[in-house]
Specification:
- The relative contact order is 0.16.
- With 558 residues, the chain is α/β, with parallel strands linked by helices.
- The strands form six sheets. Strands 1, 2, 3, 4, 5, 6, 13, 14, 15, 16, 17 and 18 form a twelve-stranded mixed beta sheet that branches. Strands 19-21-22-20 form a four-stranded mixed beta sheet, with helices on both faces. A two-stranded parallel sheet has the order 7-10.
- The chain contains 19 helices and 24 strands.
Length: 558
């Protein structure tokens, strides 16, 4: 049987004008800032704090994923369709895709099959220009820093050896990780080492996602820590008078984007930090916008629950005062086989014994979600290679833990394939007697916060701090940043800092190599293992399979 590709399904859909989608959540046409017929920006004055308290927030996360992902975005969209199908007014709120994965290996982030947000090509490519604005604001600060080094009249006496700020580009380009700039003589700047990060890893992206309004955005931009003077005094972006110009570049990017699902339900898409090196969730503004306009908001956090969900619950929810009512854990049989030890070319081959071995990974994620006083629902995202025997084993195993596991078929059936999941989520939301509780208080000592996450969420027995990390802790203390949240940078492929350890490793030690500061975002970033903020392309990039015809019709995009 031959299946249509995601882009073919999306291109067959006759889209509704965005103003008709807006009516479903009571937005006047005059409030829409339209980008063509099918996309619009939403003004921040639509946010209503009282309505936010009354409505229901549902987080979709996953077990530790395989390289291709387990379908969180697709399940999030399908769940939203399912909730609307059973009479619940629901909006999905998602991150924007990065061009790096789109042209690399993982593909876009607009869902899949019959559970997508559209227009798919626009969302996966330039969309409304938010990523471009983040990139330009980031690189403006970089240019101001190097200009100040060159300045003879307004120098801040900045020591170029201490500069922490890097340039960004939204593309996987390993050649830009470490570069030398300012060559060519005195007219071309001060020679120094520099490098590029990918745009989703920019602190400007993190700030956009943490900001609560435009004034807060501007203040956070000014709080970006740049480096030290030769006299060891700290320098911030505000010292370079950068925050207003950076905010000007972000004046439209701060507004959430409204699009639609394949079943013509509202979707808000805004912000796009990665979860292994940043906080991995959409903007606070977008989530609050959704909760102001809908009874149910379904949102997604990147990679496994040990990364995106942990950061969503400990960082975003604490910062914004959000109260999630349920968490959906996406699991696939292939990922369970993977964690049971299946070889790369065998994860799509039925094997109950490997599923039994790999279930420990899902069990650990279930335990972790419950530590936040939230009841999880497991969504089994099924594939044609899954057997009833394997699926039933997972359902029964979850039942032993008091957790409902529901098969979801939203890839093939859209909202109809997620009705059982929608009902299970509503049951949790309406019957839960517990109140969401973060894992740690931001005012705890920095080391304690790091150890709390590593031991409670990852299962480590100990945390080692390298010499550089210990020096970073002293710097954090000296700068007065001890009450920041912790945003761990760790491989998404394992609970540990070793990507090759699958399942549920035990008796392991994690090592903090260094700790970066994102003062504007309001968190510190412990680096576990050799994490890179600029990915590289695979041997055969996805871009090689993409085509565009003379009429501008794109194929091969996923």
């Amino acid at each position: 049987m031959e299946f249509l590709s995601d882009i073919e399904i999306a291109q067959q859909k006759k889209l509704k004008h965005i103003k008709k989608i807006a009516v479903k959540i009571n937005i006047d046409e005059d409030d829409l800032e339209m980008y063509g017929k099918f996309k619009a920006k939403l003004p921040l004055n639509l946010i209503d704090e009282e309505k936010i308290k009354q409505n229901n927030l549902v987080l979709v996360t996953a077990m530790t994923p395989t390289p291709s992902g387990e379908g969180k975005t697709m399940v999030s969209i399908g769940l939203t369709e399912g909730l609307n199908n059973i009479g619940k007014q629901a909006t999905v709120v998602l991150r924007e895709p990065s061009l790096g994965p789109v042209f690399g290996i993982k593909g876009g982030a607009a869902g899949g099959g019959y559970s997508q947000v559209v227009p798919m090509e626009d969302i996966n490519l330039h969309f409304t220009g938010d990523f471009n604005a983040v990139e330009k604001a980031n690189n403006l600060l970089a240019a101001l820093i190097d200009n100040n080094l060159q300045s003879k009249c307004c120098s801040l006496n900045l020591d170029p050896r201490t500069i922490l700020w890097k340039r960004v580009i939204d593309m996987n380009d390993r050649s830009l990780r470490h570069i030398t700039i300012g060559l060519g003589g005195t007219a071309h700047g001060i020679p120094r080492e520099d490098g590029f990060n990918i745009t989703p890893a920019s602190e400007v992206m993190a700030i956009l996602c943490m900001a609560t309004d435009f004034e807060d955005l501007k203040k956070r931009l000014g709080d970006i820590f740049v480096g030290f003077t030769f006299d060891r005094d700290p320098i911030f972006a505000r010292d370079l008078k950068a925050e207003n110009a950076m905010a000007i570049l972000l004046k439209d990017a701060i507004k959430p984007n409204l699009v639609q699902t394949l079943e013509e339900n509202p979707a808000i898409i805004h912000g796009g930090p990665f979860a292994n090196i940043a906080q991995g969730t959409n903007t606070i503004i977008a989530t609050k916008m959704g909760l102001s306009l809908s009874n149910y908001v379904v949102t997604e956090a990147g990679f496994g629950a040990d990364l995106g969900a942990e950061k969503f619950l400990n960082i975003k929810c604490q910062a914004a005062g959000l109260n999630p009512k349920a968490v959906v854990l996406v699991a696939t049989i292939k990922a369970l086989r993977h964690h049971g030890g299946a070889a790369k070319d065998a994860i799509n081959t039925p094997n109950l014994e490997l599923v039994k071995k790999g279930i420990c990974n899902l069990e650990k994620h279930i335990e972790n979600i419950r530590k936040f006083k939230i009841q999880p629902v497991v969504a089994i995202n099924i594939f044609i290679t899954d057997t009833e025997e394997e699926i039933n084993f997972v359902i029964e195993k979850c039942k032993e833990h008091g957790v409902q596991a529901v098969v979801t078929k939203s890839w093939a059936e859209g909202g109809q394939g997620a009705i059982d999941l929608a009902q299970a989520v509503v049951d949790v939301v309406e019957n839960s007697t517990e109140e969401f509780t973060p894992l740690y208080n931001w005012n705890m000592p920095v080391k304690d916060k790091i150890e709390k996450i590593a031991k409670e969420i990852y299962g480590a027995v100990k945390v080692d701090f390298d010499k550089k990390a210990k020096l970073n802790l002293k710097r954090i203390d000296k700068l007065g940043f001890n009450n920041f949240a912790v945003c761990m940078a760790k491989t998404q492929k394992s609970f540990t800092d070793n990507e090759f350890l699958r399942g549920r490793p035990e008796n392991f030690v994690v090592t903090v190599r260094e700790i970066e500061i994102s003062a504007g975002a309001g968190f510190i970033i412990p680096i576990l293992g050799q994490m890179m903020r600029m990915p590289g392309l695979p041997a055969t990039p996805a871009s090689e399979g993409m085509h565009i015809d003379k009429n501008g019709v794109i194929s091969g995009l996923s």
